Amino acid sequence: MEIESILKSDVVDLTSIKSFFASDKDMLIQLINVYLSDTIPRLETLEKSLTDLDYEAVRGICHFLKSSLGLMGVSCLEEVAILEKLAQNNEDEAIIKQKLSAIIPVIKESITEYKMILNKLDAL
Asked: What percentage of the chain reaches a pLDDT higher than 90?
C-alpha cells in the first residue's frame, strides 16, 4: 500500500502534511506520534475544564494547539483561537464551556483518525 493511498481522510485536511511529508514515511509517523502525544493529555485537561474551569489552562492549551491543529488540518482552528481569547479575558464561564463542548469532539475525532492513519503507516 502506498503512502498516498493511506493519506486520505474525511475528518482532517491532510493537505499540509501531504505537501511536506508525503514521501517520507518515517517523518509522517514521527509527526503523527508527536501530535498524539502532545494533544491527548491537553485534551484531557480541556475536558476537566468542562466541570472545573481553569482559565489559564484553557488559554495556554489553546495557544499551544493552534499551530498543531493548523498543520494537522483539524477543522476547529478558528474556534480554538476564539476560545484562547475568551479564556485570556476571563469571559463568562458558560460561554467558554460551550466553546469547549464544541471543539472537544472535533479534536477527539482527529485523534481517532490519526491513530488509524498511524496504524496503516506502521503496517507498510
From this structure: 86
